[in-house]
Amino acid sequence: MANKRNRRIDKAFRITGLLATCFGVFVLIILLGSILIKGVTRLNFQFLSSLPSRFAAKAGILSALSGTLWIFGLTALFAIPVGIGAAVYLEEYGKKNKLGGFIEINISNLAGVPSIIYGLLGLGIFVHALKFGPVILAGALTLALLILPIIIVSTREALKAVPKTIREAAYGLGATKWQVIRTQVLPASAGGILTGMILALARAIGETAPLIVVGALAYVPFVPKSPFDNFSVLPMQIFNWVSRPQKEFTVNAAAAIIVLLVITFILNGFAVFLRNKWQQKVKW
Amino acid sequence: MKIKEKIIEMLLGFCAFITVLTTFGIVYILFSESYRFFKEVSIVRFITDKEWTPLFADKQYGIMALLSGTLLTSAIAMVVALPLGIIIAVYLNEYAHKTVRNYLKPVLEILAAIPTVVYGFFALMVVTPFLKLLFPEISGFNALSAGLVMGVMIIPLVSSLSEDALYAVPKSLREASYGMGATKFQTSFRVLVPAASSGIIVSFILAISRAVGETMIVAIAAGQQPRLTANPLVPIETITTYIVQVSSGDVVNGSVEYRTIFAAGITLFIFTFLLNNVSHFVRKRFKQQYE
Lengths: 284, 291
Hints:
The complex is a heterodimer. By secondary structure, chain A is an all-alpha fold. Chain A has eleven helices and no strands. In chain A, helix 3 runs parallel beside helix 6, helix 4 crosses helix 6 and helix 8 packs antiparallel against helix 11. Helix content of chain B is 76%, strand content 0%. Chain B has two domains: 2-40; 64-285, Orthogonal Bundle (MetI-like fold).
């Protein structure tokens, strides 16, 4: 074997690999940089506190931002209890029978369904069949179903990490199954569960497609006051502004993207922080 | 006490059952609306017609015009994401120094956390103008820009799943290969990658599935002109974009136009469903067992 040649290939691949990885980083820098340059001058108090407008200079993201907060809160309200409940059931009670196997495959299938299909589900069920109309509640329920598989998977991972000995010690003291779960398993896995939650919710507030299908509006000249109000969200507002030909609206879109990215990165950063903290603290 | 335990178990069981209801809901909505659609439009024309113009006076319902857009953008994305994803996975797993890895990997993961509407903006405002320097004839909306950006977005999915698969290959195989005097490159591509092939194939399939269902990037940057073409420089329309286009206009509930989005949706759903199940199959069937 030509040893020299092999070593040259090896070296070439080392460089290729580094370049490929740096390419990803490079694109990220260009992406963030171009958006900052375009949008940062437009970011001011007027922009954050104004309703949308036909005039780009007067327009703001107040209604979109409040819509995003509504959606965030309600989606969390629906998805968190159901997600934890389902994960606890599958992990702690789940029987290894046909039904259990079916639920497992079903969840991993749901995780692979494109988000826009969830939008069609929400449109058919919540907007039309249940007659909610294109309101915040319909959007939040749709997103809750969308992130449910993500929450279930991450919660199950957290529950799995709790060692059997803890459960057995509690049973040994005479605790019932639910007491074991409530007083031992859930507190011990809270950090992991919370991390998964936050990542799932960060995903939810970046979603656009399902909310467009459900009927989120591009132009909402008021701040929504109840779950039965019409709404817009930040990504929706961005999509609307990007779709307009005027350059001033593009600048607005860039500024709104900065706000959306700040929220997304804060949530993701918080999740990473929690995960690291938890991993250091808990050693079984 | 016993009754309380039973009630709690039933409540938790119901939570798990909601996921099953979700699947039934999706299948029911897609099938029932599509059934009504196919009562008015023949399924043969749906598959064989070459034009998709339900919103015009002369209505044509050829899904191929949308499907070709979806396949074109997905193919471009895969040309970017698959080779780069696997190269990055091998590099980070086998070559990179630990400190390099600890810095680069989290940065790469940020790509996966960015909302897709942001990528759409990037494709339209930055990548397309750049491509115009290389291909002066390129349209303002085109499959190339959307596909390339989608590919970059999917890189972390391929690289992290492939890396997990490479990492799971037992150390003994690696050491045996080095013991034979193989270089890192030989060890990586003749021992580790084949040994981790099932995990790597799964990552490829999931990447394709993700690209087929991706919506906002193509809705913003690829255009809204359904056409049967493989030319990446002209505006096209994907299945997902069409659903967005109809949803953001005012189409009357119950009309044929309204039902087209469910017919388009079921086509998309069948595609991703098949891909996801192939990936389960590959994972189960070709899982290498090492002891």
